[in-house]
Request: fold
Amino acid sequence: MRGGKGDGMRIADAAAAVGTTPRALRFYEQRGLLPPPRRTGAGQRDYSPDELALLRVIRRLLGLGLTVDDLHGIAASLPMLAAEPAPDCAPPANAGPVAPATGATTAWPAAPAPAGPTAGRCVVDRRIAALDSEIARLTELRDALRALRRPVGEGGAGPG
Reply:
C-alpha cells in the first residue's frame, strides 16, 4: 500500500486485477505504454487506481486486436480513451490496396498522429478499416472457392 493510504497495489495483485501477469505489466512499462509506477520504500512497484484504469484500457485495446506497436504510438493519449468520447477520426482514404500476388493489403503511409483523445480514436479507426479490408479480401476468396466447387452443370467452372 502506498504511504499507508491503502490505495496502491503490488504488481502481482495489480496484474491479477486486470487479468494479466506481472511480466506483462513490466513489458508494458518497458515498451512505454505504462509510465513507471511509484515504488515502495522496499523498491516494489505500487500501482494506483489510475494506473489500474490505464491497464484496463491497454488490455481492452489489445483484446480488440490492436498491437503493442499501435498503442506505443499513442501511449500519451491512452488515459484519455477512458474519458469522454473523442470526436471521430476518418480512416485514411487509402486503406491500402490489395497486392495482387499475395492478396495482402499494403500498409498506410506513416502520418503524424493527432494529439489528445483523437489519437486513440484514429488508431482504433485505422484498425477497423484494416479489419474491413481483410474481411472483404477473405469474402472474395471464399466466393472464388465456392465457384470452383460448383459442378460444371450449374454454371461453375468446375475443377478443371
